[in-house]
## 1
Amino acid sequence: MNSNVALERIDIDDGATDPMRIAAEIHRQLGEIPGPVPIYDIARALDIDEIKTKPLKNFEGMLLTQPERDFGTVLLNSLASPQRRNYSLAHELGHFLCGWHVPTEDAGFSCSQRDMASPSGGARHVKQEREANQFAIELLAPPRLVKPYLRRLPDLEHVLSMHGALDISKAAAARRYVELHKEPLAVIFAKNDEFIYTVRGSQFPWIGLKEGDPLPILPSVSLEAGTSEMTETDRRDWLIRVPSVELAVQVFTQENGHAIILLHAASAEEDEGY
């Protein structure tokens, strides 16, 4: 990573009206850099003066700072993967730069894995966590760097390629992929064949599953491949309202029973490629 990243904090603070504008200003100053984005160097250049790692049971990241945001210390979960720690650092940097964010705990900002996926709790907490997530993904996976992976038919192999090239977690890559792809997509995160949560693209229909529900039958995955083929599935098993679409499903299996599931809602004409 380039240790000579120089950023003008005053220009970033002047435009700090929403997370996307903050991330855009950072990238404007960085220029057309290739991925992965040097998040540690960026954090240090923006007055995060200490970044520590420590085994954490209930949190992925913590930010200690003052209301003035003159400096900050970030603690990351050493038990998490390097890619997840990248995202956690970007998330905490989002809290730091969004000066209107207020800690919801006395110890500062303490963010769980759920906060970085599908936050719950009080309205202020949820809003702040969503904004920190929005900042993190805009910083680590800006549209310019994601665009090359969106040019072909939807496929989890493209998500895995993004994960490697941008040095972000598979989950973060999958969420970004469905948000930016022109096709109507959704990604479901599951464990032990049970639904945990979903992220839908803007064009994708509502999914009729809630946390803990058993999943419909999924396509088989060979040990060698890791991902299944994209296979037609019955839309009535997945959707709360059943529009006239052809639904296809693909699954990527992970350790400890975790799975990432990609759903593609397409017209009959578009579905001919599967």
## 2
Amino acid sequence: MSSILTNSSAITALQNLNNTQRSLSKTQNEISTGLKVATAADNATNWSVSTQMKSDNSVLGTIKDSLKQNAALVKTTVAALQQITETITGIKEQLAQAQDVDGGYGYTEIEKSLAGLGATLKGLVQGATFNGVNLLTDGSAGAGETLRVVTGYSGKSFSSIDTTNVSGLSLEATGATGLGDLFAITGLTAPDADGTGGNISTNIDTADTALAYVRELAADFGAVQNQIDAQTKFVEVLSDSLTNGVSAMVDADMNEASTRLQALQTQQQLGVQSLSIANQNSQMILKLFQ
């Protein structure tokens, strides 16, 4: 039945054209943004999961930055301890040489060498600083205080941050837990004829004690460094996995989108032509009355 009040063909053609227009608009938005899920309205499940994964990845980014900073701090400390070990070894060599020197002629030259090595040792301790933090002196961490070094994370959504506590040290102190006694070794005295007395052996013992303490510290910091490096590598891999996971859920396939765009543009052109033909039906009715 033909009616001049209702054009069913035109209504159908218009609905199809509107549907094509909506699909075309969505595809064009995917191409312009590169996202197939830009809002929760596009796909509530994928949007919710991807948003959580993005949040987790952001936390991982912060952890990764902290790990890198802590790794640099610990590496600085380990490098300083390595140089300190070599310097203390040099002090021991000078003291060993002093044992073979006739004390009657004095130890002036050896004491000059020891003074230089002592100054170097003190400079290494005070110069082991990264970003204003020095783990080998009281100045930054403070005596008895603790520096918390981030080493990783745990828990769902990385809700708990793992840390390793590094106690503040004072290698400038004297005694068994410091190197202060080696900073200025002066007044060497020769042993007696029977090989006893004098202070050279005492200084060698002091250097041995300091060397053992520094080696232990270096081993401790080396273990922390390895832990941080391992966590850094894992966090980088995990971050890449989260990035790829988010991409799989929300990123648009540009090859598919471009193909769909061409198809929808063709459908749009056909829909316009179809609507035009449907609108001509009313004109055809007029010819019946001519």
